[in-house]
């Protein structure tokens, strides 16, 4: 069973019958959609901002509902001029500037989260035009990054987002192989002197929505 995490635009997916249900976990309750051979989770359910997303509940809900591996679809900003909006990237490492949640709050445990190589290869086959490899840097959100911050981040990473590092870490702690494919929806603040706002990002997300739904369909067909 494949767990798929994405944004609210995935609600427009029409390729399969989905049944909605709530999954209780030790960390809270998360809403899931079940299809033929897959589970779909919308990370921003209940209009959660990135720094308020209940990552432990979400990932635990997928596992308890039967997911054996997870693919996440994410929206990111480019930190490089040669990675323009519209590009897709399959990251192979990450850096986090934000606090990362953990299930090890009442026990001692150490995680070394890594993107799963098999799932990364699977995504590369499904999306051959995607850039293979790259570093994802996670910030806390919901604010956008300042220009000096972006200049510094561009020395470390290729794309910036607010969710994938947390999802990867909790999935690793729960022994769920995890990979992500990210769509570049904008240049980060100051790259190519682009002016960035929340409204401009939403506009580009909507423009890329059809491509995202097409990719989702390819992912689902590969496991159905």
UniProtKB/TrEMBL annotation:
<keyword id="KW-0328">Glycosyltransferase</keyword>
<protein>
    <submittedName>
        <fullName>MTAP family purine nucleoside phosphorylase</fullName>
    </submittedName>
</protein>
<dbReference type="InterPro" id="IPR000845">
    <property type="entry name" value="Nucleoside_phosphorylase_d"/>
</dbReference>
<dbReference type="GO" id="GO:0005829">
    <property type="term" value="C:cytosol"/>
</dbReference>
<feature type="domain" description="Nucleoside phosphorylase">
    <location>
        <begin position="22"/>
        <end position="221"/>
    </location>
</feature>
<dbReference type="GO" id="GO:0019509">
    <property type="term" value="P:L-methionine salvage from methylthioadenosine"/>
</dbReference>
<dbReference type="InterPro" id="IPR010044">
    <property type="entry name" value="MTAP"/>
</dbReference>
<dbReference type="GO" id="GO:0017061">
    <property type="term" value="F:S-methyl-5-thioadenosine phosphorylase activity"/>
</dbReference>
<dbReference type="GO" id="GO:0009116">
    <property type="term" value="P:nucleoside metabolic process"/>
</dbReference>
<keyword id="KW-0808">Transferase</keyword>
<dbReference type="Pfam" id="PF01048">
    <property type="entry name" value="PNP_UDP_1"/>
</dbReference>
